[in-house]
Amino acid sequence: VYNGTTYVSLRAVSQYLGKTVKWDGSTQSVYIGEVPGEKASLWDVCPPYQTGGSYDHGFFENVPIVGHTYREGYVVGSNGFAWFNGKYNTLTFDIGHRDDAGIYDAELKVYLDDILAYTLSLKSDMLPKHVTIPLHGALQMKIVTDFHGDHYAIVNAEIK
Predict the structure, then answer these.
(1) DSSP assigned state of 57
(2) In what order do the strands lie in the sheet with 115-122?
(3) What is the pLDDT of residues 54-101, one digit of tens each?
(4) What is the pLDDT of residue 58?
(5) What is residue 138's three-state secondary structure?
(6) For residues 127 and 131, what is the distance between their CA atoms, to the nearest angstrom?
(7) Of all helices (H) and strands (E), which one includes residue 17?
(8) Containing H/E element for 14?
(9) Are 64 and 100 in contact (CB under 8 A)?
(10) What's the angle, vertex CA 29, arms to CA 24 and CA 35, rounded to 5?
């Protein structure tokens, strides 16, 4: 309390809520959680609560796919999985073969509330593929990979 006004730490509040704090210097505004007009990254909004197999290869910066370097991406490993919670409408991402990886085909599956909702066959010579998956308000999403090694990456992942 200072001069009759109660102040709280935005960092402490955001951590309690499980949200990020962002400062917008151009508008002199502080945001907790979602910033208006900003794209909602899957990894920021809805990080996996459990991973297994070699899915744990994890988040990387500067992921090269077909000669383009993406600022951030999730490199997915062989026979792995990741569980996500939340009630969302749409998941979008780009997926492609990493330039710095071996040549193997693969498969990606997405389960919504334990029901297979999407399957994608991946070929090592394909261009990056843009994927949109309707989530229909499912409470749980599981992404399963059937890859040999960590040869593919999910980039530009957004959830709404």
Answers:
(1) G
(2) 50-52, 81-85, 140-146, 106-112, 115-122
(3) 544 556 678 888 888 887 777 766 666 777 777 788 999 999 888 877
(4) 59
(5) coil
(6) 12
(7) helix 10-17
(8) helix 10-17
(9) yes
(10) 65
Q: How many CB atoms lie within 10 A of CB 31?
A: 17
Q: Would you state the structure tokens that stand for residue 38, as one six-digit string?
A: 């900003």
Check: CB of residue 30 under 8 Å from CB of residue 7.
no
114-143: per-residue pLDDT in tens?
A: 999 999 998 888 889 999 999 988 889 888
Report which residue type is found at 93.
Answer: F
Beta-strand runs (E) in the chain: 21-24, 29-32, 50-52, 58-65, 68-76, 81-85, 90-97, 106-112, 115-122, 129-134, 140-146, 152-159
Q: 63 is written with which tokens?
A: 């992921």
Is the separation of the CB atoms in 65 and 96 below 8 Å?
yes
pLDDT tens for residues 1-48? 899 998 888 888 887 877 778 888 888 888 887 777 766 677 667 777
